[in-house]
Amino acid sequence: MNRREFIASAGLAAGSLALPARVAAQVGPDLRTTAILDAARAEMNRSGALLWRRDIVGVADFAAHSAYPRFHVANLESGTVRSFRVAHGAGSDPEHDGWLKWFSNVPGSNATSRGSYISWEWYYGKYGTSVRLGGLDPDNSNAFDRAIVMHSAEYATQAHLDHWGKLGRSNGCFAFSPDDFNEILATLSGGRLIFADRLGFI
Fold it and tell me: What is the pTM of this model?
């Protein structure tokens, strides 16, 4: 459902005399959830047959500050979204103020890359269990060679945020709190889509 259809359907529900006001107010997801789901579907369709699984998409909105839950797990089958904090690359935020300034695909840049990724296999590395990623776009084509992965990190925890007011920075990887990473691992590994850009959902 696009935004125009959502607004129309919400208006019809609110104006229906057959439905109690409380039920009418709960019809459909909110506009932010709808926008995330729409973005997830669009990027999944753009990636086509490259994906192994098409039920759940990870959407990273790097227009938001690192203190906010800006990584969205969009379940296209249930129409629900769960959001988590994620760190960006040090090369994208040289002032370390929590805002991503730019993307880069250059090896050695330690920056975050925009674009669509496919999740590959698990492996055990420096940060424990991690998920390898393959870049699907020219803007992130070096993801595998740069070892851009999803992993957990203590610098992405609530405690780090409470102390510093922002998350730490990765070397370009998608780094999550260990408290959240098991859910990320369970829902987004095995050939699913991860999409990153400045999207402005918040």
Answer: 0.85
